[in-house]
Amino acid sequence: MTQKLELKGLADGGITKVPRIFHQPPEKLHKFPVSNDSQFSIPVIDLEGVNNDPITRKEVVDKVGNASRKWGFFQVINHGIPVSVMEEMKDGVRRFHEQDVEVKKQYYTRDFTKPVVYNSNFDLYTSLAVNWRDTFFSRMAPDPPKMEDLPPVCRDIMVNYSKQVMNLGNLLLELLSQALGLKPDHLKDMDCGRGLLMLCHYYPGCPQPELALGTMINIGDLLQLISNDAFVSVEHRVLANSDGPRVSVACFFSTSLKSDPVLYGPIKELLSEGNPPKYRETTVRDYVIYSNGRGLDVDGTSPLLHFRL
């Protein structure tokens, strides 16, 4: 199999065993066992009324802060993005990936400056194992691609969904700023919400899901860096599934594909004699280049260690 052949094509071929290139190291699979504990749940935060009621706003800010300090992630409901829009976005991703390979191959590239990038593994040459998923992604802000450069089967919903996500993201940046004890616009004024990357994953059914992992990139490390460890970033992974394809859309507020000279370090307003800076400054691009250059599953350690003082 060449890397210009999609993973979906491999799965559709009726394989019964996962090729060795997809086998995750045993120590990685066993390091984070999957919990079947029904009592285990992540924080769910209701955003209903967050812009209208000061009391509700404070309660939500407290919940966002607690989740960001303890868990590093949380789920939101009543976030303002219509279910119909989310469903159409997922359908659009499915339509793209289930097209004829001859149609999709025009988007295949490892040149991340292209308007649309389609491949199986961005870190093919640095990871210990290949991930079980195909992906296409596009930079939707601050310089969105031309409509004609986006795939026809999903271009309209990509534009619509990205606008909705930008609105939600700006609200979340306000809540995160307040949770840090800062003014609501602090993170937005730092341009934390200026760039948007949309990654559209497709996980085919896997004959041996216990051997393969699927991931979405978690770049929450930068929020941990600028908050000087007030907020924590946790490793994110997705198990491969045995029943049919699964799609997901991950949107990241990042300018990593642009040569932006802005330096990010611990926010000065959060520092004190008892809380000195723990990280050196870096550009978003330099951070992501270092992080991606290691591969997603290099050794289980955070790339943040490279930037600690």
TrEMBL record:
The keyword Metal-binding applies. Residues 217-254 form the Isopenicillin N synthase-like Fe(2+) 2OG dioxygenase domain. PANTHER family: 1-AMINOCYCLOPROPANE-1-CARBOXYLATE OXIDASE HOMOLOG 1, OXIDOREDUCTASE, 2OG-FE II OXYGENASE FAMILY PROTEIN. Residues 42-141 form the Non-haem dioxygenase N-terminal domain. It comes from Gossypium mustelinum. The keyword Transmembrane helix does not apply. InterPro entries: DIOX_N (IPR026992), IPNS-like_FE2OG_OXY (IPR044861), IPNS-like_sf (IPR027443). Keywords: Iron, Metal-binding, Oxidoreductase. This is Fe2OG dioxygenase domain-containing protein. GO terms for molecular function: metal ion binding; oxidoreductase activity. Belongs to the iron/ascorbate-dependent oxidoreductase family.
